[in-house]
Specification:
Blueprint: H1 14-23, H2 42-45, E1 54-60, E2 64-70, E3 74-80, E4 87-93, H3 103-108, E5 120-122, E6 128-135, E7 140-141, H4 149-156, H5 168-177, E8 190-192, E9 195-198, E10 204-208, E11 214-220, E12 224-230, E13 246-252, H6 255-262, H7 271-288
Antiparallel strand pairs: 1-13, 2-12, 3-11, 3-13, 4-8, 4-12, 5-6, 6-11, 7-8, 9-10
Length: about 290
């Protein structure tokens, strides 16, 4: 989605440009971040728990990326409103950005290749970064990674971040750069809303979307930077670069951390999930004791 703004003749002078710029204040478009968060459309904020105060509200266009540092205990809901989003996600630990989401361990440690409700998202240090605490999609992919510049060039004719068909890795790299990181810090990502399945012979099959309105919620176990890119899945069979926006809303829910550990939020945690949670809590306790 590309927005084209025509400059009126009045912007030829500094005064005219200033007047035109100030006329834009308060205007909205279909896809944007809402600041203050409470100014977001009602549909973005609908369904929040009683008393919840939103800290992030955004509609992310297809072909774009976003990033935001978030506090421990933040709960983030992503909604595939129109049914054709594909969100590639990375997590980095705030203050120790060398620790980041490890998709291989996220699959291997809990013995589950298909993330859904209750699935832990693990760092490369064996700590719990986040948990999927709600999911009406169940079409996600932790196996094939993100689209690349070379792949998009071959399939769509372009793949740079500002082209008409940006690759996920190019967009994630921009998000990493915004946080002081670089291309070497862009590890394999988790894809949400476009699923895959492994056939008995070992081949990976694209299963597509669950349809309009599917949502997934993450609960952060630590302060973290989230980087998201909404762009095509590498196994999407369509020849055209196409997709739709994803709605994002976040709110602080520290009480959910205790409920998760107690087994009353997503059910009793598997031993691997519980150990990763304890690894995170032990590290936080040690840091706070200094």
């Amino acid at each position: 989605m590309t927005q084209v703004i025509e400059s009126p003749a009045g912007t030829a002078t500094t005064a005219g440009a200033r007047a035109h710029a100030r006329e834009q204040h308060g205007r909205t478009v279909d896809t944007m971040r809402y600041v203050p968060t409470a100014s977001a459309p009602a549909h973005l904020l609908a369904g929040l728990p009683d008393g919840a105060s939103p800290t992030w509200a955004e509609s992310l266009a297809f072909g774009r990326y976003t990033t935001l540092p978030l506090a421990r205990g933040t709960r983030i809901r992503l909604t595939d409103a129109a049914g054709d989003a594909c969100v590639h996600a990375l997590l980095y630990r705030t203050g120790a950005m060398h620790e980041r989401l490890n998709v291989a361990d996220t699959v291997k440690v809990p013995w589950q290749a298909y993330p859904t409700t209750g699935h832990p998202l693990l760092s490369d240090a064996g700590r719990l970064m986040a948990t999927i605490v709600a999911d009406t999609s169940s079409r996600h992919d932790a196996l094939t990674g993100a689209t690349t510049l070379e792949g998009n060039n071959a399939k769509y004719g372009a793949g740079t971040a500002h082209s008409a068909s940006p690759a996920a890795r190019e967009l994630l790299t921009l998000g990493a750069l915004k946080n002081g990181l670089g291309p070497r810090d862009v590890a394999p990502s988790l894809s949400l809303f476009k699923g895959t399945a492994v056939d008995p012979a070992g081949s990976i099959r694209f299963t597509g979307s669950a349809g309009p309105g599917a949502a997934v919620e993450l609960l952060l176990q630590m302060d973290a930077v989230l980087v998201l890119a909404n762009t095509a899945h590498p196994l999407d069979p369509r020849a055209d670069f196409t997709g739709t926006a994803v709605d994002i809303v976040g709110w602080h829910a520290p009480q959910d951390l205790a409920a998760l550990e107690a087994g009353t939020l997503t059910g009793r945690l598997a031993p691997e999930h519980l150990q990763a949670l304890h690894n995170t809590e032990h590290d936080l306790t040690a840091r706070n004791a200094r």
